[in-house]
Write a structure and sequence with these properties.
The protein has 284 residues and is of the alpha/beta class. The protein has a single domain (4-274), classed as Nitrilase/N-carbamoyl-D-aminoacid amidohydrolase (4-Layer Sandwich). Helix content is 22%, strand content 31%. The strands form four sheets. A six-stranded mixed beta sheet has the order 5-4-3-2-1-14. Strands 6-7-8-9-12-13 form a six-stranded mixed beta sheet. A two-stranded antiparallel sheet has the order 10-11. Helix 1 runs parallel beside helix 3. The protein starts with a strand and ends in a 24-residue tail after the last strand. The relative contact order is 0.14.
Length: 284
Amino acid sequence: MAKTTIACAQIDCRIGDVESNRAKVIDRIREAAAREAKLVILPECAITGYAFDSLEEAAQFAEPIDGPTAESVARACSETGVYAIVGFIEKDGSRYFNAAMLAGPGGVIGSYRKIHMPYMGADRFLTPGDRPFEVFDLPIGKIGILICYDVSFPEAARTLKLMGAALIALPTNWPPGARRGPDFVINARALENHVNFVATNRVGTERGWPFIGRSKVVDYNGDTLGEASGDSEQMLVAEIDFDEANKNRIVNSPGAYEIDRLADRRPELYGLISAPVKRSRTAS
């Protein structure tokens, strides 16, 4: 099977300006299609912005998964034949989630709700994700979604790989303190799971928080295929191989040097990983 072209739309957005942000997202979907991408990934909270000061403020800009933004994104995907992953704040009854919607030519497919919540920005007030990890089986390949801080937890990426993901998409809002994400973590997650890993960050400054850009595409060997700069809006385009990411047995020297990071696991010895720990968080 030929390689698949994917795109990271590294953008700036205005906090609370849903209409302007939505228009920019639609423009980037069309640009990705013009560059022959089959999948385009937008940043975390691309529709809403992130640095809210309260739940009440953030809730004003939240939408359900069948809201106007999802409708606009789905229409653009239908018109262009592209799949898109877009960060937004999802409203579900009285609860609000940091989420990423997935849409394609046939409409809205679903959403992922961020599971691991750092004490910063809107995540201080939003509800942690309440659904199990999910792999979306698309015509282009099997895709899992994480959001920003989720990548700091190796169990999350490993779970998606065990579920069959050949690509993990990471919409993110990396500030300067998160520079080790593009420096080290994305490549490590790709290598240790033999999975393509694509991170899309934003740029610009929001209420004193600068964002570092550096969107990144890494292949299943942990090799960087492309990285955006840290100071401007841009479209990062790269080709990835879904099929090779599914070939988990790596043969460096037949019969002498072969590894399989799934088959070689010893889960019977990993019980401590899933043991609950007492949460303690104090705001300073």
